[in-house]
Amino acid sequence: MRRFLLMLLGSILLFGGSVQAAERDFSVAIDTAISEQLQPSNTAYYDLLLAPGTTKELSFILTNHTDDDLRIAVNPSNATTSSSGRITYQPLTENRAPTIQMTNYLQIAKTVVIPADGQKTVTETLTMPNTADIGLMAGGVSFTAVKAKQDINDKIQLAHALSYTIAVHARAQAQLPKVALSLSQPTAISLPNRTGIAFQINNKVGRFVNDLSGTASLTDIATNKPIMTATFKQISLAPNTSWPLTVSRKNKQLPPGKYRLAVHVKTSGLTQSWNQPVTVRMAHQEQQVRGFSVWVVGIGLISIGAIAAISYWVISKSQPNG
């Protein structure tokens, strides 16, 4: 029990509470005096209003709280939507890049070194696209302190890493475009012991979509019989990104046929519905089993034919010539 309480206290300090500067290897702050910041009181991240084609230098002040020099890896990324419907600034491989990528418009050093008990200012150059109607570009810059050691093979191994990500948002117009969503064409996919219906909800404009909720229902077109309904809520989408979703019935394969997927969504200022047809063909596993069965039957027939031919040859050899 004592061990559990200690682990719980450690989790609160790491994720839920403030950590004193002395307890961290380093910290990151933004330049709060920048005039293009939409809300001067915002000191946590950059949220900028920049004219089209403008180039702006952004400063990140890194402070080293240790007695040793710290090598910092710097990695810019785009704001994306995870498969769980959350906004992330980490370059996860499962996430599709937004149609307008902030990483194409910024330049920053890959690595820097903060002197022991000192500070280092890292400058990022951000160039706005020449068009004014792109809405919000959203990305971030991650700073990772890396301590490395050499093993017996003189290979560098990661011994410790602490990372901070500072969001960077930029727009050319104060007024963002209205929420606009679309639904991709649904497809039937084969999953273990069940059939899934996969589709995407697309955020078509440069703005965040928060607190999206809705339902996805599948109906058999031939019988007009409801097959299944899935609900989702508190979904967030980054600007110009898509959220992938797959609905299915547990341990249930859908019979081949034509179905209708009805998706209804609601968020602040928008209620929208789509109806899309989807065709379910023979399940992949069933095709494999049927193909395997045909293969087995074919081998069986060949074997029977071979046995019959050998038996005939043996019998004919045992008969006297006459």
Report on the architecture of this protein:
With 322 residues, the chain is an alpha+beta fold. The protein has three domains: 20-171, Immunoglobulin-like; 181-280, Sandwich (Immunoglobulin-like), CATH 2.60.40.10; 291-317. It contains two helices and 19 strands. The protein has helices spanning 2-16, 284-318, and strands spanning 26-30, 46-49, 55-64, 70-78, 80-81, 87-88, 106-107, 111-114, 119-127, 136-150, 156-171, 181-183, 187-191, 194-203, 209-220, 225-237, 242-248, 257-267, 270-280. A five-stranded mixed beta sheet has the order 2-11-10-4-8, with no helix packed on it. It has a four-stranded antiparallel beta sheet with strand order 1-3-9-7, with no helix packed on it. Strands 12, 13, 14 and 17 form a four-stranded antiparallel beta sheet that branches. A hairpin with a 5-residue loop joins strand 5 and strand 6 (87-88). The longest helix is centred in the C-terminal third of the chain and has 35 residues, at 284-318.
Task: Describe the structure concisely for a colleague.
Residues 155-285 form the WxL Interacting Protein host binding domain. Keywords: Membrane, Signal, Transmembrane, Transmembrane helix. The chain is α+β, with helices and mostly antiparallel strands and 322 residues long.
